[in-house]
Amino acid sequence: AILEIKTLDAVSSAAEHVRDMLRLNRSDNMGVRDMLPALYVRLGRDQDAYDFIKWNGTTGSSRYYDWGNMDLPYLDVVDADVFESPRYLWAKGLTSVTWSTLL
After folding, report:
1. What is the pLDDT of residues 36-51, one digit of tens each?
2. What is the phi/psi pair of residue 2, to 5°?
3. 14 with 2: CB under 8 angstroms?
């Protein structure tokens, strides 16, 4: 509902809310992670959007990642090379929303 308000503050608030939801529920069984990269792009935070997508396409998509272990690194990709080949993402089952944000 907050995104019905067409302001930068509303988008920023929505992004913060999504981050809080992911912090509280890392496994994201509701799929809110699909919204964050697009919100970052709307805020002009392209690097944060790419870092988030890369973490989800690498560490976050590993079947061995223990979502319940709060001591494991989480969203720790910082300043990844946005010009690298996205091949590591091809077989990761990212949603069309994430792909469209990346492209």
Report:
1. 999 999 999 999 999 9
2. -65, -25
3. yes
